[in-house]
């Protein structure tokens, strides 16, 4: 079995994470409970440790109310006894009820109610990284960070992070934490991959690097496009996520796939795949702590795990940079 990947510090949180995080949005959606348990077992057995989920996963599925992913993770934690081998990251802020219910946003009341519900579903006494799923401009920073400070003091949360924040608002949030002497966001979860670069690199990347935040980017494989399995519109029916990649079937997208194929071929002795190369490019980028990637089978996960061992040459990184430039 390959050696466990080296851990990386997540900002200044004190948390140490392996260089790929598992995206728990698939649990209870495209991966049933049995498969989810198998995936989590394989993830931990390979030496990885950060599992990312959210209270709202998978509310978008007909008949679901949210919390399905957390509940599956909780049952796995109880059955496996692996709580101390993993870091659990979840989120608060997306709507968990009808409009007007108050079950959304970053108010103190909702944060406290939501963290209680998440802890119950996860069957644990602590959340390692509690993230604001969306910005909430309607709630003062003092109220939001005051609530997070309470949870940290109570031992229910170890560190906090942000997701889906603009650079100006993230900068405001960090300044508010410093001014109020309250806990700050130690990580950012942005949308970032070879097909989605500008939104992160232009303003967020300089900010998080200057402030020393960890980065765990979502859609690391561009909804599966960077695996190479979607190369024509006929391929879009291959999975539930196919529709989300239609916009990548253009000259730039095909150039990226060509570059991924070429770099993978150069690592044929390591049996490298386009998906591994795409993740390895992210892992190698300064400031990225761990891209988030999902799988729906153990074989898929084992392929992705290989990205942590794949070392790209400088000219290969340059080729990928050029192919994916906006």
Q: Span between N and C termini?
A: 39 Å
Structure classification:
alpha/beta
Mean pLDDT over all positions: 96
Low-pLDDT runs of 5+ residues are: none
How is the biggest beta sheet arranged? 8 strands, parallel
Number of strands: 10
CATH superfamily: NADP-dependent oxidoreductase domain
User: In the CATH classification, which architecture applies?
Assistant: Alpha-Beta Barrel
Query: What is the name of the CATH class?
Result: Alpha Beta
Question: How many separate domains?
Answer: 1
Kindly report the CATH topology: TIM Barrel
Count of DSSP-assigned helices:
11
- Using only C-alpha atoms, the radius of gyration works out to 19 Å
Proportion in helices: 25-40%
Shape: globular
In N-to-C order, the SSE pattern is EEEHEHEHEHEHEHHEHHEHH
Q: Give, in spatial order, the strands making up the sheet with the most strands.
A: 9-8-7-6-5-4-3-10
The percent range for strand residues is: 5-15%
Walk me through this protein's architecture.
An eight-stranded parallel β-sheet has the order 9-8-7-6-5-4-3-10, with helices on one face. It is of the alpha/beta class and 326 residues long. Helix 2 packs across helix 3. The mean pLDDT is 96. Helix 2 links the parallel strand 4 and strand 5. The chain has one domain: TIM Barrel. 39% of the residues lie in helices and 12% in strands.
What is the compact description of this entry?
The chain has 326 residues and is an alpha/beta fold.
Map the helices and strands.
Elements: E1 8-9, E2 16-17, E3 21-23, H1 33-45, E4 50-52, H2 68-80, E5 87-92, H3 108-122, E6 127-132, H4 141-153, E7 157-163, H5 167-180, E8 185-189, H6 198-201, H7 204-211, E9 214-215, H8 251-266, H9 274-284, E10 292-293, H10 298-305, H11 314-324
Parallel strand pairs: 3-4, 3-10, 4-5, 5-6, 6-7, 7-8, 8-9
Antiparallel strand pairs: 1-2
